[in-house]
């Protein structure tokens, strides 16, 4: 399980956020990573690798966005 908190500044860190983390994760071990946001759309290394992988695919594997959404709806009931 994971949770992401987006704050507009470090000044927004408060006890309510800490209490929410405690309530969500209880006695489970957790890791807290704090990083400065570089922009509105940040991609992880894994996300970038997946996009690079998809860019290298041949056109014969291409499906349209509409088909992709349809398949996701069928598989996950979205």
Fold topology:
Layout lengths: L14 H11 L19 H11 L9 H12 L2
Structure description:
The protein is mostly helical. It has one domain. It is 44% helix and 0% strand. The chain has helices spanning 15-25, 45-55, 65-76. The protein starts with 14 loop residues before the first helix and ends with a helix.
Radius of gyration from CA coordinates: 19 Å
Termini separation comes to 20 Å
Backbone shape? elongated
Please report the number of helical segments: 3
Calculate the mean pLDDT score and round it. 87
Low-confidence stretches: none
Instruction: Characterize the biggest β-sheet.
Output: none
Class computed from helices, strands and strand pairing:
mainly alpha
Number of domains: 1
Q: What oligomeric arrangement do these chains adopt?
A: single chain
Residues in helix, % = 40-55%
């Amino acid at each position: 399980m994971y949770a992401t908190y987006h704050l507009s500044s470090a000044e927004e860190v408060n006890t309510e956020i800490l209490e929410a983390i405690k309530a969500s994760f209880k006695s489970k071990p957790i890791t807290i990573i704090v990083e400065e946001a570089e922009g509105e759309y940040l991609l992880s290394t894994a996300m970038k690798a997946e996009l690079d992988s998809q860019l290298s695919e041949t056109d014969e594997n291409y499906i349209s966005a509409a088909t992709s959404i349809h398949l996701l709806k069928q598989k996950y009931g979205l």
